[in-house]
Amino acid sequence: MSTIKTLTGIKPTGTPHLGNYVGAIRPAIEESRRDDIKSYYFLADYHAIISSWDPDQVHESTRNIAAVWLALGLDTDRATFYRQSDIPEIPELCWMLNCMAAKGLMNRAHAYKAAMDANVAEGNDPDKGVTMGLYSYPVLMAADILMFNANRVPVGRDQVQHIEMARDIAARFNHIYKGEHFVLPEAIVGENSAVLSGLDGRKMSKSYGNVIPLFCPEKKFRKFIMKVVTNSLEPGEPKDADTCTLFQIFSAFARSESEIAAKRKQYEDGAGWGALKQELFEYLNEELKGPRAEYDRLIADPAFIEAELKKGADKAREESAPFITRLRDAVGLRSLV
Ligand code: TRP
What we know:
The protein is mainly alpha-helical.
């Protein structure tokens, strides 16, 4: 039986929020502790420069996101945790894959199509502002995945199409260059990872501006929790836990089913919103204050983060370097002697 190899890329943009934590970071860290899975997590900084031309932003964001994962307890001896741009074999493979990827396939990529549709709707040239980076984004992603022959790729729904494209490109490469060079990856869309609601009750998302940051000073964090929208029921009136954002967030963090049941009972018994919010704040704060302090410590010690990433890159390159040599050979990029 082949080992399970899980790989996922984290685009270093913005600040992670509770929804990112519960939906992606926490399950990934849990998975990395399993003995039957070999996991690869990387900061997709080559992808970041597609959408951000602000060097300081890319740089800081890469540091911050690395610090978040480390502070939350990612075990870098088990998982391979690296920065994409530390692996020169990735852009090299990306080029080989560019030579396999049909242009027509890329025309259908949803990020590119959305950019085109927006241009057309505004009466602009369809390709206005579209770089080759954006256009061939899925090819770089395929290189990320195929470089390590990952068979499972946990992603959000919006990325499933990209994994299918990676399969397509990999299959074509295998066919043209007659061999099982690449494993065909599968998208894993977390069914058991929770989707959190945000301040206004819609899905917590940066694009809705309704997020609660994962790490921010305690006072600010409390203010965020206080801002969660509830209804106008008074203390003493029974409340519906299942439609309540506070309850949903609590449930995603609760340590046991019995804690959730006890919280539900408080709703039925008519607890007031103020008290429920204060309790949620205290509960989350208890959970997050350790990692938050560790995050602050790491941000003040970038050399430590850098060393962790370098360690990950060394591990990753132990695989990518010999593999790219084989691939170069397969496509005919060989020494003459
Ligand atoms: N495109 C992914 C996102 O925006 C990030 C990413 C880059 C990725 N390379 C990847 C995810 C490889 C999975 C596998 O979320």
